[in-house]
Amino acid sequence: MIFLQKMIETQQLFNISEASQWATSYTGKSVTTSNIAYLIQYGLIRKIGENGTTQVLQSELEKYFCLEKKIKTNIYSGDCKEILKIIPDNSVDLIVTSPPYADQRKTTYGGITPDKYVEWFLPISEELLRVLKPTGTFILNIKEKVVDGERSTYVMELILEMRKQGWLWTEEFIWHKKNSYPGKWPNRFRDAWERLLQFNKSKKFNMYQDAVKVPIGDWATGRLKNLSETDKIRDNAKNGSGFGKNISNWVGKETVYPTNVVHLSTECNNKNHSAAFPNSLPEWFIKLFTQEGDMVLDPFAGSGTTNVVAQRMARNSIGIEIQPEYVEMIKSNIKENETKLF
Predict the structure, then answer these.
(1) What is the pLDDT along the chain (342 residues), one digit of tens a residue?
(2) Which one of 29, 67, 195, 329 has the largest count of C-beta atoms within 10 Å of its C-beta?
(3) Which helix (H) or strand (E) holds 97?
């Protein structure tokens, strides 16, 4: 806060209208007040309140618009197994993708049977391993299907084979679908979650945990008000599990690190694609594993959600999509997003 106050004291502050005029002059493009409001809404430029008026720092406008001039979004049409070969080694900071699941999207992507899925995916993951930086991360959204009344094992088999390729299976996030459809099956309940598998090339990778902190929650108000002596030390669990905690560590904190369960709603109907990401899914991982100017790749781009979000967040990106009609849709979405930014 002290650092921010010094910045405010030493730099030019603009209201929304002044920021629009300055950015239009700086970029040579028409930057409207709505464009500035969009950047503030998505946290690309910080909002500073002064006497009830929204203001922004000139330095942050300069940083964003200078970087934006360099941001590239490249969309390729074709089979990712072939297109990936033109991408240089060690050039991608983050891969976020959801390939066709086994026997799913047959009319669109042909459908890969569970017994052939690993064989089909390994040449692709080999290319992804090559293009990812040693400090980069690969997030794979995938879920086993049910075959003859039991869950298929193709995802577990894929994990084991990717480890043989040289991948490190670092973590597994769970995407909890808050609005999953109700249903009734004779031997199971509705699916309300999907896997988000994290793979890396090395144990030391870029991770910006502070970017995804969440509010500490109402529990802290009463729990941290009157601490016992036990709360002020690392108290080992009484059940002998070996876990311990020091409750006093949370005193004065407004935000904490999240869990590895990501609670997000689906949003397919408005994207003209049967298996579209919600925007918030790639956004969360882009925040966690990249910084502005980094390169994001989606080899199964679909409706282009990853690329649109990456562009909005001032990241370079590459999207690969095999269906020509989806390629045109992605390019249209990218252009629409540029209109919001400018």
Answers:
(1) 443 344 444 568 888 899 889 888 887 778 888 888 888 887 778 888 655 678 888 888 887 777 766 789 999 999 999 999 999 999 999 999 999 877 554 444 456 888 899 999 999 999 999 999 999 999 999 988 887 888 889 999 999 999 999 999 999 999 998 887 777 778 888 888 999 999 999 999 999 999 998 886 555 555 555 555 555 445 455 555 445 555 555 555 678 889 999 998 876 544 554 456 789 999 999 999 999 999 999 999 998 999 999 999 989 999 999 999 999 999 888 888 776 665
(2) 329
(3) strand 92-97
pTM: 0.75
Together in a domain, 37 and 137? no
164 and 121 within one domain: yes
Domain that residue 13 falls in: 2-68
Structure tokens at 163: 């480890």
Alpha helices in 16-77 (DSSP H): 16-27, 33-41, 58-68
Q: Could you tell me which of 55, 58, 129, 47 has the C-alpha nearest to residue 95?
A: 129
Number of DSSP helices (H) and strands (E) in the chain, helices first: 12, 17
Distance from the first to the final alpha carbon of the chain: 30
Distance CA 171, CA 156 (A): 14
The token pair at 203 is 């144990």
Out of 21, 39, 68, a domain closes at 68
